[in-house]
Amino acid sequence: MRKLMLMVAVGGFAGSATAQDDSMPENPLPEFVPRDLALDEDLEEDILEWVQARADADEFSGVVTLVRDGIVLVEEAYGFAEKAHRIPNTLDTRFRVGSITKSFTKVAVAKLIELGKLHRESTLADLLPDYPRLDIAGDITVEQLVSHRSGLGGMNYGAYLESYMPSIRRPMDYIELFADEPLLFAPGTREEYSNAGYIVLGAVLEAAGGRPWEELVEEYVFEAAGMVSSCFVDLDRPHVPVATGYWRCDPDQPDIWCTNYWRLELVATSGGGNYSTSQDLIAFDQAMREGALLGPEANYWYFFDRWPDPSENIIPEFWPAQAIAGGAEGVSAVVVSNSEMALSVVGNLGGDSAEYVAIALAEGLEMFE
Question: 43-102+216-364 is classed in which CATH architecture?
Answer without folding.
Answer: 3-Layer(aba) Sandwich (3.40)
